[in-house]
Amino acid sequence: MKVLNLRCGAQHVFEGWFGSELDFQDQLSRGLLTCPLCGDTEVEKMLSAPRLNLAGAAANVPAAPTPVNSTTQPTATEARLWQAMRTAIARAENVGDRFADEARRIHHGEAEARQIRGQASLQDTLALLEEGVPVLPLPPALKETLQ
Q: What are phi and psi of 99, to 5 degrees?
């Protein structure tokens, strides 16, 4: 597993995990890499220090603090966007894995109109979008950050 430091065109720094360098290059060439903050597809690999797994050799060494870099600090607009997304998630009813069915019922007027959130497979999500059901898929890493 390769963990790479990546940066988008808007200078957001984030991590990407890949099976190999070839896997990274393949995803990059196909335009599959996007910034989790702004969705920018202009992604570049930054220099990364290798990680050596020495089976606990450094267990007694405290972790170094993460350096604060101005490119990783959110702008006021980004901070407002993150807060708005957190508020929307907090106000939405979590319907879990029933998301696709419940979204359809709401869309067709068979259930009370309300904000919902939950999980759906890629196929279910694409089907909802094709049917005109307004959904906003979030990548798993972004969902964990918001909650």
A: -55, -50
Exposure of 50 in the CB half-sphere (CA atoms within 13 A)? 3
What SS3 class is residue 7?
strand
User: For the segment 10-41, what is each residue's pLDDT rounded down to a tens digit?
Assistant: 899 888 888 888 888 999 999 889 888 888 88
Residue 105 CA, chain-centre distance (Å), reads: 27
Closest CA to 39 of 88, 97, 81: 81
| pTM of the full structure | 0.46
Contacting residues for 109 by C-beta, under 8 A, at least 6 apart = none
CB 96 within 8 A of CB 118: yes
- DSSP for 49-62 reads ------TTTTTTSP
Contact status, residue 103 vs residue 135, Cβ threshold 8 Å: yes
Run of H or E including 137:
none
Give the distance, in angstroms, between the CA of residue 55 and the centroid of all CA atoms in the same chain. 30
